[in-house]
Design a protein that fits this description.
The protein is an alpha/beta fold. The chain has helices at residues 16-27, 73-82; strands at residues 9-13, 30-33, 38-42, 48-52, 67-69, 86-94, 97-103, 109-114. The longest helix is centred in the N-terminal third of the chain and has 12 residues, at 16-27. The relative contact order is 0.22.
Length: 115
């Protein structure tokens, strides 16, 4: 890890098992549990983790928006929806490409971008 670069990102999850299943199935992330209240993910770009909490992260409440890259937005959006995610802003154009926003199975907001 380089000095002054983001090294790790953490998110709340009210159901760690559901979070692991969703992100493994949709995005291919891998997980390592650290007790019953924390799981770390990799294969995601920056590594991170989920901690057990009823809190939710969203842009509306001031949370940071993490944007995941996809080579096929439509396919990724279909996978998100097929695995329990909810699209909260459908695919739209923005400077540099297109993206959509979704909430995961525990209510955290994410975005996926591509061309």
């Amino acid at each position: 890890m380089n000095h002054n670069q983001i090294g790790f990102i953490e998110f709340p999850s009210s159901d760690l098992s559901a979070s692991k299943t969703f992100f493994t199935t949709v995005f291919g992330w891998t997980f390592k549990d650290f007790g019953e209240k924390y799981t770390a993910f990799s294969e995601s770009g920056p590594h991170g983790g989920f901690f057990l909490s009823d809190a939710k992260s969203s842009v509306a409440t001031g949370g940071a928006l993490v944007v995941i890259h996809s080579d096929d937005l439509e396919k990724t959006q279909a996978a998100v929806e097929a695995n329990g995610g909810k699209v909260v802003k459908g695919i739209f154009a923005f400077p540099g490409g297109r993206r959509f926003h979704f909430t995961d199975t525990t209510g955290n907001e994410w975005a996926v971008s591509g061309k």
